[in-house]
Design brief:
Strand content: 5-15%
Distance between the termini: 69 Å
Order of helices and strands: HHHEEHEHHHHHEHHHHHHHHEEEEHHEEH
Low-confidence stretches: 1-16, 191-198, 458-465
Strand order of the largest sheet: 1-2-8-5-3
Mean pLDDT: 86
Number of strands: 10
Structural class: alpha+beta
Helix content: 40-55%
Amino acid sequence: MPHGRRASALHAPPSAPIAGRLDARALLGHSMLDGAFLRDPYPTYGALRDAAPLVWSDEFFGGAWLVSRHADVELVLRDARFSAQRTGGWVMRPVDAAHDDRHAGRSELKGFQRLFARAMIFLDAPDHTRVRQVMAAAFRPADLQRLTPRIEQVVAERLAAVDSTQTFDFVSALARPLPAEVIGLLLGMDVGLDDAEGDVPADVVAWSDELADFIGAPTPSRAQALSAQAALLAMARYFDVLLARRRAALGSGTEPREDVIGRLLQAERDGQIRGSAELLAQCVMLLFAGHETTRHLLANGLRTLLAHPQQWQQLKQDPSLLPGAVRELLRYDSPVQYTGRRVTTDTTLHGQTLHRGDLVVALIGAANRDPARHERPDELDITRRPAPPLAFGQGPHVCIGAALTLMEAQAVFAQVLRRWPDLALTEPAAPQWTGNALYRGLTALSVQCPSLSANAHTAAPTLPL
């Protein structure tokens, strides 16, 4: 996720030689982001890690430095020399390429940029610190624990609605809809509107898909940018109505609620959140981020466990392994494969000069399989006790919702284990991946319960005599 507001131009155009650089395309002998990579990126990551700590690629946003080793990825995520403020050129690059009139082209996406750039994940200190302090109050352990019974209930209701006597798609049945419902509960989207409007809107998943297509495209097109803008503004319109009604309720003397929206509204009154655009940006990006990554963890994680039957059996025999198992699933096949940072000042890394404005792509998926950090990194081991994986990031921008995601995944896998202990894959030989380089996930996951299916087939109806 790349381009920067502080310096949106690369130090040199992609075609210009950069002294001493190792080029990813030349190293691999083919395009890095080809079909094989999108199906299984880990052999490519291994080749990059083995070749050099710093590799250039012209396939990411017009040109970027790639870091794939754990120590370097961690450095980029933690060090203030690498800025999270990177939306300006990212959003505008597609229209700049499509329009002769640069000003006219950029006006197409000004609504997108206005909100996108204000989201907490794209801010640096001190603005990031100010906004994160507000958001963090809604993710305190005590508040999440109060949400646990409701999450358990929602999971149970979703699973109970599945006809498990037949083959079913786990993605559509649970992995796609559940995270949107849970993040909606945390935000407070289930209150403040009329009953017909008070639930999380069904369009959330479609909106998230449009945003994910843009954010996950190494070279987004104008069409992707415009579709993402439409989705982002649709989310903003929904929250505009909800926020107006919540403000009106507060004005009439209603007690403030202890949900995210309630805290943001209080912070707006106190001056910690500066203006309606900043408030809307936090709402829409939290709704998107809380849904997109968790749904892929649920589907990818279940597929990985079922593809490793001995590990599945271990979990059935000892459910106390589940918290560690979820972290191992995040390490083994991270839903978020990379993130981007902009260099804030000329910096030397591994003997190569990185200039102010250069883009650095931190390959999280590669770092999580670094043998220098993890023993037998390409093996799944739910009893592994390593340092935490980088799936949630590191440093000041570490995922604020990590605890919620872990809680949600543990609730889902625990109930699936209890309800369907003999669940098995029925998917075709080739998994149905989304083809998104950033958000690694499945479009479908076909599963069945053999014992239930057998009972359904053998139980003949009683016929009248």
